Automatic annotation (TrEMBL):
Glycerol-3-phosphate dehydrogenase NAD-dependent C-terminal domain ranges (all copies): 188-337
Protein name: Glycerol-3-phosphate dehydrogenase
Natural source organism: Pectinatus cerevisiiphilus
A single GO BP: carbohydrate metabolic process
Record field: catalytic activity: sn-glycerol 3-phosphate + NADP(+) = dihydroxyacetone phosphate + NADPH + H(+)
SUPFAM superfamilies named among the record's database cross-references: 6-phosphogluconate dehydrogenase C-terminal domain-like, NAD(P)-binding Rossmann-fold domains
Top class in the EC scheme: oxidoreductase
Pfam name, any one: NAD_Gly3P_dh_N
Enzyme Commission designation: 1.1.1.94
Length: 359
């Protein structure tokens, strides 16, 4: 048994308490200032407001001003904060870290590091460690097809834990794995986190194919979606290798697995479906903002596109080999017509795929 503190009481952070509590650990859930109403409900014995489902009874709940108490004598910290706030909140946690502790993260995406460079989230955490802890703290990153509510329901689930120190990934797996929450491990953090971020971007494109019947006489576009899925996986592989990763996670749970799940439902698909139905990207995004819906895939497309261009300048990747990402950027940020653009992209991707096989 270990003392595990989850930082962030949102959908995934709260869901993560289920397997670790079921495994007999001492689990604490800390809410950010935005989570006060959630902590209120949980302390009152009510369901989690976002899930309308109870958390394990053994979990202890803490408000944002109780961080020291939540982290007292803890062995493992799990970050479950939105990507834009991850660095800021982790800076509050750092003073409580001690050599030998594990830091896990279920947060996915890109952000700018302190020098202004676009990086994956492992860099955001690592650069905030003081020099005395840089060789003393191991990070473990969680990715794969995992809907938060299904974890709470106890649905059979498989995810990947990635760490540059494979022993750390195995240690956290030992603390979290149950009869229904299954975990594999890898030391390829780069590919794992690249897939975790980019699958949101590509799922916007998959969603467009689901929306096309609304402007094309009701005719399904499953052929189109199947092609887009294939080319999304191909481009994630090209991207991962350019960053120094391998194809293992791309062809596994973090890549293909999570892409399939996220493409079936969720906010990224909803945005794509709205564009596919005939709205411009700006109209679709405005509509979602009116309903207070944040879509991770929207900034992920921009971050991914800019990172691809940066890698192209370094001679690590030709942007011509990733037409789908370039096309999605054009649709989302330049209001290019969704249907006509996707029609052209399928042809471009087919040609690029033939060229990529010759590389």
């Amino acid at each position: 048994m270990a003392k595990i503190t989850v930082i962030g009481a949102g959908a995934m952070g709260s869901a993560f308490t289920k397997p670790i509590a079921d495994n007999g650990n001492d689990v604490r859930l800390w809410g950010s200032p935005l989570d006060n109403s959630i902590i209120d409900s949980l302390k009152a014995g009510k369901n989690h407001p976002k899930h309308n489902y109870p958390l394990p009874k053994s979990v202890k709940f803490f408000y944002h001003n109780e961080l020291a108490e939540a982290l007292k004598d803890t062995d493992v910290v799990v970050m479950a904060i939105t990507s834009d706030a991850l660095g800021t909140v982790f800076e509050q946690v750092v003073p409580y870290l001690k050599p030998g502790m594990l830091v896990g993260s279920v947060t996915k995406g890109f952000n700018y590091d302190k020098s202004g460079k676009i990086v994956l989230l492992p860099n955001i955490l690592a650069e905030r460690l003081p020099s005395r802890l840089k060789q003393q703290i191991d990070f473990v990153f969680v990715a794969g097809p995992c809907k938060a509510i299904e974890v709470l329901w106890g649905v059979p689930t498989s995810v990947t834990y990635a760490s540059t120190n494979i022993k750390a990934a195995v240690k956290l797996r030992t603390l979290a794995e149950t009869e229904v929450y299954n975990i594999d491990t890898t030391d390829d953090v780069t590919s794992t986190e690249l897939c975790a971020a980019m699958k949101n971007a590509y799922c916007v494109g998959l969603g467009m194919a689901e929306g096309f019947p609304q402007q094309k006489g009701g005719f399904l576009h499953k052929n189109t979606k199947g092609a887009l899925f294939t080319y999304a996986v191909t481009e994630m592989g090209i991207f991962a290798k350019a960053l120094g990763g391998t194809l293992g996670p791309v062809l596994g749970l973090p890549g293909m697995g999570d892409l399939e799940l996220t493409g079936e439902a969720g906010r990224n698909r909803t945005l794509g479906e709205a564009i596919g139905s005939g709205l411009s990207a700006s109209q679709a995004i405005a509509k979602m903002k009116e309903n207070d819906i944040t879509v991770e895939g929207y900034p992920a497309i921009k971050f991914g596109y800019l990172l691809m261009k940066s890698l192209e300048k370094e001679g690590k990747i030709p942007s011509a080999s990733m037409p789908l990402l370039s096309g999605l950027y054009d649709i989302l940020y330049n209001d290019a017509a969704g249907y006509e653009s996707i029609k052209k992209l399928v042809k471009l991707c087919t040609a690029a795929n033939i060229s990529n096989r010759k590389m």
